[in-house]
Amino acid sequence: MEQHRTPPERYGPRRGSPPTAFPPQARRRQADERRPGSGAPRAGRPAQGRPAQAARSAARPEPAGRPLPHPRLTGLGGGLFGAAAMFLLGFLDQLLFGASLTLYGVLFLPVCVLTALWVRGGDLMTAPVVAPIAFAVGLVPVAESSGGMGGRVMGLVTALATQAGWLYGGTLVAGVIVLVRRARLVRRRALRRRTG
Description:
Blueprint: H1 51-59, H2 75-97, H3 101-118, H4 127-142, H5 148-162, H6 164-195
Helix pairs in contact: 2-3, 2-4, 3-4, 3-6, 4-5, 4-6
């Protein structure tokens, strides 16, 4: 049986119509119309389509400034961040305050908090592990040394022994934050399973 083919439709302007540079979908709107989602309805369309969305966009406050950073670090990234931050803070402590070990210990606490907050969910348990490593790396410029490699190692071991309280405190803070974040993550997953 023979089937007749129909010629494909031809798109474009018909004969006798004025040529246009863009198809109708791409033509610019009039100057008084706004883009969708900006809060004001387009001209020619009723505003009744999405009143809840318009109310939400009107109720949403504008951010006062730039939002706070909220990075997600891998386990390795968290370790590198902690080690680099503590080395920099140790160098500044040695340069500006004459290698104050107490100040170094105080500065260790916020670095532990940031590392525990910024590490991603899959690598949460690495934050308390990398905190002591970062503490030791940062002690290199701060620890006293009597000269030579042996003197530097002895100064580092002495500083680790005398500042163990700050080391344990920062590691404990990182561990508590990680446990709270892990519990919230598990609860959120369980809630998703129940609802989904």
